[in-house]
Amino acid sequence: MNSIRNISIAAALIFFNTFSAQVAIEKEVIDGSSTLLDFNNVPANTKGLILPATQGLPTASPANGTFVFDTSDQKVKVYENNTWKDLSDPGSSAAITANASDETGNGVVIGVQPGSAEGILVLESPDKAMILPKIDTPHLNVKNPYPGMICYDTASKTFAVFDGTVWNYWK
C-alpha cells in the first residue's frame, strides 16, 4: 500500500512540475504560449502597471530588469548591465501614498522556482515574457495617472512611463 502511495505522489510531482505558471489579470485566457503575465488589453483600457516607489535605490544588488520610481530624484529607473538608467526626466512624487505596513519576505514569484532576484513581484522564466497593459494614447486617456505607471502605448507603439508630471515614451 505504501509503494502505491509513493508512486502516486511521484507521478503527481512529475505531472505538476511539467507546467509553467502563467497568469492572466482581468481576463480568462493568456495571449500566446510565451507569456508569463498578461493583462486585459481591451481597446478601452486605461489601467497601467504601477512601479514600486522607493526612497533612493535598493541597497542590495538588484537583478537586471528591475524597475522603480525613485522618489529621491523623482525619476523612473531600470537596472541594466549593473547600472541604474533613467527612464524619465524628474517628475513629481506628490501623489504617492506612503506605505506604512511592514514588508516581509521576498514578495510574489510567478514562473519557475525563484532565483536570486528580490522584489515585490518577481517574474522568473527562461522563455516567457510579460505583456504590459496596452493603452491607446495614455497621455489623453488616463485621467489620473499615478507616478511610476507604465504601459504600452498602442497608438505610438512605444513604452510609456508616467513620472508624476508627464508621460515619457521609449521605442
UniProtKB/TrEMBL annotation:
Alphabetic keyword roster: Signal
UniProt signal peptide: 1-23
Domain of life of the native organism: Bacteria
Protein name: Alkaline phosphatase
Organism: Chryseobacterium endalhagicum
